[in-house]
Amino acid sequence: MPNQQVVGMIRGMSGSGDEEVAEAVGKAGKTPAEIDGERYDVIVIGTGSAGKPLAGELARAGLRVLAVERHRIGGECAYVACVPSKSMLLSARRHRSAGSAVPHLEAFARAVRVRDDTVHHREDTLAAHGMLEDGVELVRARATAGPGGVRLDDDSTTGTVHWNTALVLATGAAAVMPPVDGLERGAPGIWTSDVALSTAELPGRLAILGGGAIGCELSEVYASFGSRVTLLQSAPTLLDREQPWLGEAMATSLERLGVDVRTGTELKRVDGTTLTTDGETFAVDRLLVAVGKKPVLDGLEDLDLETGKKGEVLVDARMRVNGRTDVFAIGDLTAINPYTHGANHQARVVADELLGRGRDADHSGTPRVVYTDPAVFAVGDTEKTAADRGVRTATARSDATETTRSAVERTLDPDDDRPAGLELIADADTGVLIGAAAIGPEADAWAAELALAVRARVTVQALADQPHAFPSWAEAINAPAQELAARLR
Ligand SMILES: Cc1cc2nc3c(=O)[nH]c(=O)nc-3n(C[C@H](O)[C@H](O)[C@H](O)COP(=O)(O)OP(=O)(O)OC[C@H]3O[C@@H](n4cnc5c(N)ncnc54)[C@H](O)[C@@H]3O)c2cc1C
Ligand SMILES: NC(=O)c1ccc[n+]([C@@H]2O[C@H](COP(=O)([O-])OP(=O)(O)OC[C@H]3O[C@@H](n4cnc5c(N)ncnc54)[C@H](O)[C@@H]3O)[C@@H](O)[C@H]2O)c1
């Protein structure tokens, strides 16, 4: 059967198949036994987008810092998340532009090679050396934190270390497996994004469960290389925490690539790689599960952390936990803006606190981007989150395909039917911009000013008065800003 041939050929090329992510983790740092009984100014557990920059900044400022990592130095982003997914998206785009000139298998194999070079073959020595150069002391171990110290275990030794000033928890989040009959993590044929972004296998038929950021980005990747992708989303729209029209536009965009988008669909049962939804039973080669992530709390149980509904660690405006001044949580563990730039911001807030220039975190201007083509950009409130806060909103939308930039691009490529649009959401009582949603080519770049506008509490009057370069996609901001400025005058 052609699908099986596809799988076999690609596996043969690089040999990674569908085993769990390679454990190629470089050697650097100390053993738990070597540092048993030591005291540090700050101990950071987890070296991802949250823990790594924080540990580095504090060590460069002269503090004695220990960073503990049980897997890859650098966390998920650089190896199995942000970076490989963007590499694959860009290769997929290039492959689509080439038309049928290059066969799918050949293009996919090349994309995998480029991806793996970009992520240093998931090997973390370079990141480890960067931390050591910053002056961070590094231990590769599983941390178990308690009120009296942090116990460290690796395969052969143990030790206990203590903090003088602060313990920072930055343990991230892990993919959720929903309670579907027959669905098990690690079962043959079941992928998480870690596997989908490490494998060299191109499945003939791929089902993706979950129409969030991962579901949309990886649908685009695999469909572009010829997989028959079925995207199963339980909510009525894709990207369901955003304005509904964004998810609808995303569905249109993915359907153009041949993705079978099924919203409002429940997966009821998995039998090997045969799936039963509320409507039908069908066979696939792989099922990628991408229905969200859950904060990683193992090793932190003895701290009795206050957690929210999704298991996220609750923090105050300085990222402190349980009302303590010496224990902090940052990054995906808090579920506040679970993005690398969100984690980086939270790390800076804690660094400032510990370096004597404390200030509150401001999460309001954190962009939410989906790097498909067209890309999705959102910031601040949606109408729903504003209503939940009791804020009255006024909204206005533009069709970005009516900009001169769009006309220029579409004359060049008459087949270009990518959706493009922008919506502004204002506080109806104050005229302040509180949210924005956009989709369009490179929307992550041309809508980025709206993130600062939301954070700086810019009024729609100021936004309407702001010139946008001609002929750029950003001109899509003009009409809705002017409409809101007139309505809220
Ligand atoms: C497929 C995918 C694509 C993404 N794309 C983007 C993107 O394009 N842009 C973006 O901004 N964000 C993106 N994200 C989100 C981004 O990857 C995360 O928000 C970010 O990496 C979180 O960083 P973190 O430090 O909180 O967690 P992590 O990077 O997960 O780091 C936590 C670390 O803690 C370690 N750890 C956990 N428990 C212990 C313990 N007990 N002892 C020792 N070590 C421990 C783990 O091994 C891990 O290395 C993507 C996510 C995925 C899954
Ligand atoms: N570009 C980016 O910044 C980027 C890219 C990929 C991932 N990420 C981050 O990685 C994390 C995980 O991404 P994700 O896409 O798994 O989570 P997500 O929370 O963004 O989306 C999950 C989606 O799955 C749907 N869903 C939930 N249960 C379901 C079920 N049983 N059946 C079908 N659908 C179901 C939800 O309605 C939701 O739309 C998120 O924090 C995300 O922001 C970010």
TrEMBL record:
Its cofactor is FAD. Pfam families: Pyr_redox_2 (PF07992), Pyr_redox_dim (PF02852). It comes from the Bacteria. Residues 40-337 form the FAD/NAD(P)-binding domain. Keywords: FAD, Flavoprotein. Residues 366-478 form the Pyridine nucleotide-disulphide oxidoreductase dimerisation domain. Belongs to the class-I pyridine nucleotide-disulfide oxidoreductase family. PANTHER family: MERCURIC REDUCTASE. This is NAD(P)/FAD-dependent oxidoreductase.
